[in-house]
Specification:
Layout: H1 3-11, E1 17-22, E2 27-30, H2 32-38, H3 42-45, H4 71-78, E3 82-89, E4 95-107, E5 110-119, H5 123-137, E6 147-148, H6 149-161, E7 169-176, H7 179-186, H8 188-203, E8 211-216, E9 219-225, H9 229-244, E10 259-265, H10 272-288, E11 294-296
Parallel strand pairs: 6-8, 10-11
Antiparallel strand pairs: 1-2, 1-5, 3-4, 4-5, 7-9, 7-10, 8-9
Helix pairs in contact: 7-8
Length: 304
């Protein structure tokens, strides 16, 4: 799951219309607000190209901007923010006047496309929306493309408040075994590659609605939605095995990492931080018993 996938999770609930294109102007994502304003569904727009002219932007003079003078093209080529008042062609046939603001979409300081925000509100509100987008980008760790700790504290509580009261939440706390020794032997750049490999193994083998967070250094927290103890332990063990059987391929002595995992389930009437601390303690038990293992603790566990 890359940075784009994370952004789509965050932009689903935006009140402003947003779509994301790659450098070839292929539409990678089209949020529900964009569907509401344009009349086109996400399915109709995703994987099409903006120059297919479904939105068919024109200016006051009737010039077709999707064919000539496209703000997306200018933003991608120049790595600059562009804005215009345009008229999009609603699916039902009428024109809708919108203000378009295009923000370059960057990964590792390289332009990979553009994020377009369009709305019928004032430019002032669009500037505020740009700040909101930047805030969302700041919730993603640039090295691993996992959510970062700020996401856990600033964004997740609001997301969690929308969960059903009957829905359980599983928590995994992971730490890469002997990570300091890897950095000391191979250098921090290779340590970063190991961290990315482990992160990718984890996030590519979970459900789309689970959350993976780089908690700090080589510590990773996983939040598993609607899951019981047996399945929490099953998922933790699966991830442990997959990480052990992954490895960076660039060295003759292939680096094969393992993780120690602590697992728990958020109990009723306890805070998320309390449950994360319990999972953290369970992870240290796994470390103390020889690394590369899973330890589950429930709320009734009495820490010595």
């Amino acid at each position: 799951m890359d940075q784009l996938t994370k952004l789509t999770q965050l932009f689903e609930s935006f009140h402003e219309a947003i779509y994301i294109v790659d450098k070839d102007r292929k539409i990678l994502y089209f949020n529900p607000a964009a569907s509401q304003i344009s009349g086109f569904s996400q399915g109709e727009m995703t994987n099409s190209f903006c120059f297919d002219n479904k939105l068919n932007h024109v200016d006051d003079a009737g010039n077709k901007l999707c064919l000539d003078g496209c703000p997306l093209v200018d933003s991608i080529k120049g790595n600059v923010i562009k804005e215009h008042f345009v008229y999009l062609h609603h699916k039902n046939g009428h024109r809708v006047r919108v203000h378009v603001r295009v923000i370059p979409y960057l990964e590792n300081d390289e332009v990979h496309g553009a994020i377009e925000v369009f709305t019928d509100v004032t430019e002032r509100n669009l500037l505020l929306e740009e700040l909101m987008i930047q805030k969302k980008l700041n919730l993603i760790d640039p090295l691993t493309s996992l959510f970062n700790r700020r996401f856990l504290h600033e964004e997740f509580p609001q997301i969690f408040s929308g969960f059903s009261k009957e829905e359980s939440l599983g928590i995994l706390f992971m730490d890469i075994d002997d990570f300091k020794e890897i950095n000391d032997k191979y250098g921090h750049l290779m340590g970063d590659e190991v961290l990315k490999t482990v992160s990718n193994t984890i996030q590519y083998n979970l459900k789309a609605n689970d959350f993976v967070i780089r908690y700090g250094g080589d510590e990773i927290v996983v939040l598993l939605r609607n899951i019981d103890q047996d399945n929490v332990e099953f998922v933790a063990e699966k991830l442990r095995i997959l990480v052990k059987n992954s490895g960076h391929r660039d060295l003759e002595d292939r680096i094969q990492s393992t993780v120690s995992i602590g697992a728990t389930i958020l109990a009723k009437n306890e805070s998320l931080l309390q449950a994360i601390n319990r999972a953290d303690h369970a992870m240290y038990i796994s470390k103390s018993k020889g690394h590369n293992r899973v330890t589950f603790l429930n709320k009734d566990y009495q820490q010595e």
